[in-house]
Every structure is written in structure tokens, then in C-alpha cells.
Amino acid sequence: MKSSQKPQSSSPKILGFIIMLVFVFMLGWNVGVNHTYQKDIFDSNNIVLSPYGEAETVNMQLFWDTWNILSGKYVDPHKLDSQKMIFGAVSGMVDSLDDPYTGFMTPKENKEFQDSLDGTLEGIGAELTMRHGLITVVSPLKGSPAKRAGLQPEDIIVEVNGESVEEMSFEQAVIKIRGEKGTAVVLTIIRGNVPEPIKLSIVRDKINVDSVSWEIKDQIAIIEINQFGNGTRYEFSKAVNEILNKRPKGAILDLRYNGGGYLEGAVDIVSEFIESGKVVTIKKRNPDEDEIIYTSGQARITSIPLVVLINKGSASASEIVAGAIQDNGRGYIIGETSFGKGTVQEVENLIGGASLRVTVAKWFTPNDNNISEVGITPDLIVERTPEDYENNTDPQMDAAMEYLKK
After folding, report:
1. According to the model, what pLDDT value does residue 39 have?
2. Which helix (DSSP H) or strand (DSSP E) does residue 222 occupy?
3. What is the pairing mode between strands 163-164 and 57-59?
4. Which of 333, 320, 331 minimizes the C-alpha distance to 293?
5. What SS3 state is found at 46?
């Protein structure tokens, strides 16, 4: 909430104390499934000692001096939004890690993030990331305004409504792209080998995303998983029950444009296809906490032939599923090399409804492959060109159907 009062002489100290609490919390977490928080140690001169026993110390006086100078001398005091300054300080600290998947979320951003995992959000309907310093499309959601407008995985966004994103943070750019239903945003993108920038006008909408949808075609079960959200486990289990009653002769698991979600959801999906075997290896900061995750032993779709479809928009949990099925020899992978996100994040709730999304581990396929920046390579590479999309043809799906019929 913005402050409507001019900062008083005592406000920097009060707000400074709040900031200190935030810094103590964020510097003191201990990564792991069971979180044990350590207290930082302060001396009388506001010097923070490292919570991990490192020799380096952090002198907070620089922060306080900057805060006090701005509060006392900045020419436009009405611009001194104390809440925004706190968020900016925390964001800057997190951004210094140069990890596109670790980020601070304001209460508003945190709510939107949680809504997206619940399957409801408002905007253009695309998952974005910062990759090599560039705002990059991971995947447009199926049925979203972004997908209908022609946004594609690995498109690089360079302008929003004619304004360059070069000097924007990732969060600032995302805020400008988001907006109310019915309003339009114009994105200028750079795409692969296309020589000139492309302008796309996208009308924002309220987006409801079903995690799972399915159909039977020519005795083949086609199962689409759009994201690994809160309802995926239930929706997929229900779909499996109905599919088994149809007695299909083969199955296609479509993970294209699935930008990921919960790790647990990926393990659940793999466990339906593989009776026993390794799903993924999680390697954490402390090697003693590394873990190998196996299937649950409750597989129901073990005997029929399986094809998994992936493309450049398949990331994270989607890649865990594809990698596990490929390495265990359970199915055949068709499509394009996936996005290449081989890290695991946890969301820590912070004071006031904010949150911190932090990378806590790296994951490896059952054959101990790290797919970060590399992706999953299909057994059969089949591209789907822009002309295919325009003509509503799908050579990847055709290749999957042909493989299973043979």
C-alpha cells in the first residue's frame, strides 16, 4: 500500500527495522525439505555475520546511509514510497544471484502466481523467464490469448507497447505485460531466424486452464497435461480410470507447451506408467540431503505402448516426466528438444503476503543426465512449423499416431 504521508525523521528507523527483519529472514533460511531457520548475529555496529560460518561480513551501514539520504534529500519526497523501496531492496538482493528461477514476489505477484497453479489467471497466458539476460517465452498456455496470437516458445520479448525492456527488471516487464481482461498489449519479439522483429497485439483475458484433458481417437488415448498444478493429481487419476474403461491399444502423453509446476505432480504421472524404477535424482546444496525418488508402485498403464510428445515449450516437471519415461525405456519420445530447466524451486512465504521463489536443488534424469540449458532430446525429432500452425496441421501428433498403429 502506498503511503500518503511525507516521511518523518523517525520513519527511516522504524522502516529500517522492518527491512532488517526481512533481511534476517531471507539470509537465514536453511535449504531442505524440513526447514530450520538460523538467526543471524548482529553486533552493535549493524554488521551481519554470515549464518553459514563464512569469514565475510556484510556491513549494513551502506544500506542505512542510502535510505537516510534518500529520505532526507530526494527532490520529490512524494515519490518515496516506503513499501516500494523495501520491495526494491529485497528484489535487488535476490536478483544479484543471477538465477532466473529465484525471485522475490510482492503480495500481488504472489497471489497471481498461486492463482496460476490453481488454473486461474488473467493476462496473456504465457510463461516467461529471464534467459541469458533476455526475457524469453517458455511456453504460451494452450488456448490462451498468447497462443492464439502466435507467440511461440523461445520468442524473445524486446518491447512492450513500444517501450524497450532493456532497462527493465524481469518483474517490471511482467507487470507491464499483464493487465485486465479486454485490454490489449503489443509485444515486439525476436524469433529464431526471422530477420525482422515481429509485433504481436494480444488482447488479455481471464484464463482457466484445465490441468488434464483427454480423448480416444482410433483406439488411441490422447492425454494432454497442460501444467502440473494443484489439481493435476486428481484430474489425471480420474482420467486414467475413464481411459482404462475404454481399453485403448496405445497412449499418447502430450506435454507440449507444458511449462511445468509441482515436482510431486511429475512423480505421480510417471508412477502411473512405470511400476517400479527411478524417476529423478534431486541434488541439493548439502550432498547428504540428496535424494533419489522412485515410482509409487501404483502404476495402472503399464502394458500398452506409449508415446510422449514434447517441444520447446515443455519445461521443468514436463521434462522430468519425459526424461524418466525415456531413461526407463517405457515409452517413445517424439517432437522437439525441450526447454532445458533442470532446477527445483520452493516458495517461501514472507511477511505481508510476499514470497520468495528460491532454487533449492538441481535434478537429474534416471541415467544421471543434467538437462539444464540442454533439454530432453526426442527419440524421433519432428518439427511443427509456423505454416503447420496456420494450416492447423500437426505432424508431431501424426507421427505419434503412426508409430502406435504400427
Report:
1. 35
2. strand 220-225
3. unpaired
4. 320
5. coil
Return all residues near 218 (Cβ < 8 A) that are at least 6 apart.
Answer: 401, 405
Question: Is the pLDDT reported for residue 380 higher than 90?
Answer: yes
Q: Residue 265: its pLDDT value, please?
A: 92
| Per-position DSSP letters for 96-157, written without gaps between them | TT--TT-EEE-HHHHHHHHHHHHTEEEES-EEEEEETTEEEEEEEPTTSHHHHHT--TT-EE
SS3 assignment for 154-212: CCEEEEECCEECCCCCHHHHHHHHCCCCCCEEEEEEECCCCCCCEEEEEECEEEECCCE
> pTM for the whole thing?
0.73
> In which band, very low, low, confident or very high, does the pLDDT at 3 lie, cut at 50, 70 and 90?
very low
Q: Could you tell me if 364 and 280 are in contact, meaning their C-beta atoms sit under 8 angstroms apart?
A: yes
What pLDDT does 311 receive? 94
Residue-range domains of the chain with CATH: 11-96 (no CATH), 120-207 (2.30.42.10), 209-405 (3.90.226.10)
Interval 212-220 mean pLDDT: 96
The span from the CA of 298 to the CA of 317, in Å, is 19
Catalytic residue IDs: 316, 341, 345
Mean pLDDT value of segment 299-316:
94
Do 198 and 189 form a contact (C-beta atoms < 8 A)? Answer: yes
Grid cell in block for residue 27? 539470509
